[in-house]
Specification:
Elements (H helix, E strand, L loop, with lengths): L6 H14 L16 H6 L13 H5 L30 H4 L8 H11 L35 H13 L8 H32 L8 H40 L1
Helix pairs in contact: 5-6, 6-7
C-alpha cells in the first residue's frame, strides 16, 4: 500500500480494507476497526494539508531563460552567459511565493527618506477592524487616524486609483502626497507649540520630558563611571609608587 498523505484518503483506504476483511497477519487474522475511524468519518477534515508546489510554472515556462547578448529590461545590463532564470532545487517547488503589493514600494521609499518617522508611537489596534471603510483618502487628513507614513501611502494609492496620476508615474503622486504630509505635520507641530505656550501662560507646570529624564539617567551612569575610574587610577598609582620604593631600597 502506498503512503497516504491525507486523512481523507486514509479513511477511504481503511473503509475498503474493513469491507474486504483483509487479514492483518498471523496474530491478527482480520483488521479491526480503529478507535479513530468513526470520529474521522463523522468529522472529516476540511483542508488538504499535503504540500503543494508553488513555483512549478517557472519550471514549465523555460522560455524565460536569458540568451547571451540579450539586454535585461529591468537593469539595462547584457547577459554574458547562459543561466537558468529559475531555481532547479527541489525545495524551490514547495517554497511559498513572496506576497508583493504595489504600495510596499511607496512605503519603503517614504521610510527610507524619513527614518525618524519610525520612532513615533503608533496605534496598531483598531476598534472593530473596519476603520479603513470610514476613511476618505480624497484628503490626507483623517480625523480618526493619527498622521504618519501610512497616510502618505494611502493618499498616493488614492491619487493613482482615481486616475489623477498613472501607475508608471507613481513618484509624482508620491511627491504630492508627501508635500501634503509636510504641511499637515507643520500645522500639527504649530498647534502643539501654541497650546503649550498658552498652558504656561495660565500657570501650568510641565514635568521633565522623556529626553530630559533619559539624559539625567545617562549622566548618573557617567558620574559613577568617573568615580570608579578615579579610584582605579589611584590604586594603580599607589601600586606603582610602592614598587618603585621597593626597587630603591634594594
Amino acid at each position: 500500500m502506498r503512503l497516504q498523505y491525507t486523512a481523507t484518503a486514509l479513511l477511504e483506504k481503511t473503509t475498503r480494507l474493513l469491507k474486504a476483511g483483509v487479514p492483518g497477519g498471523s496474530r491478527n487474522p482480520a483488521i479491526s476497526e480503529p478507535s479513530w475511524f468513526r470520529v474521522v468519518a463523522s468529522h472529516p477534515p476540511t483542508h488538504n494539508l499535503a504540500l503543494k508546489t508553488h513555483n512549478l510554472k517557472e519550471f514549465v515556462e523555460k522560455e524565460h531563460t536569458f540568451q547571451v547578448g540579450e539586454k535585461r529590461k529591468a537593469t539595462g545590463t547584457y547577459v554574458t552567459r547562459n543561466k537558468q532564470a529559475y531555481s532547479s532545487r527541489l525545495g524551490h517547488l514547495y517554497r511559498p511565493r513572496k506576497i508583493k503589493y504595489f504600495e510596499d514600494k511607496v512605503r519603503r521609499l517614504f521610510y527610507e527618506q524619513h527614518p525618524w518617522e519610525l520612532a513615533r508611537p503608533k496605534l496598531v489596534v483598531e476598534n472593530d477592524g473596519n476603520d479603513i471603510s470610514r476613511q476618505d483618502w480624497s484628503s490626507i487628513y483623517q480625523p480618526t487616524k493619527k498622521l504618519d507614513g501610512e497616510n502618505v501611502v494611502r493618499r498616493t494609492m488614492y491619487l493613482i486609483e482615481s486616475g489623477e496620476f498613472d501607475r508608471d508615474h507613481w513618484l509624482q503622486a508620491y511627491d504630492k502626497a508627501r508635500l501634503e504630509f509636510y504641511r499637515l505635520r507643520m500645522r500639527e507641530e504649530a498647534e502643539v507649540q501654541v497650546a503649550a505656550e498658552e498652558a504656561v501662560m495660565f500657570g501650568s507646570v510641565f514635568g521633565k520630558s522623556y529626553i530630559q529624564h533619559g539624559i539625567e539617567e545617562e549622566q548618573k551612569v557617567i558620574d559613577k563611571w568617573v568615580e570608579e575610574a578615579k579610584q582605579a587610577t589611584a590604586v594603580k598609582k599607589s601600586k606603582m609608587s610602592s614598587s618603585g620604593d621597593e626597587g630603591e631600597s634594594s
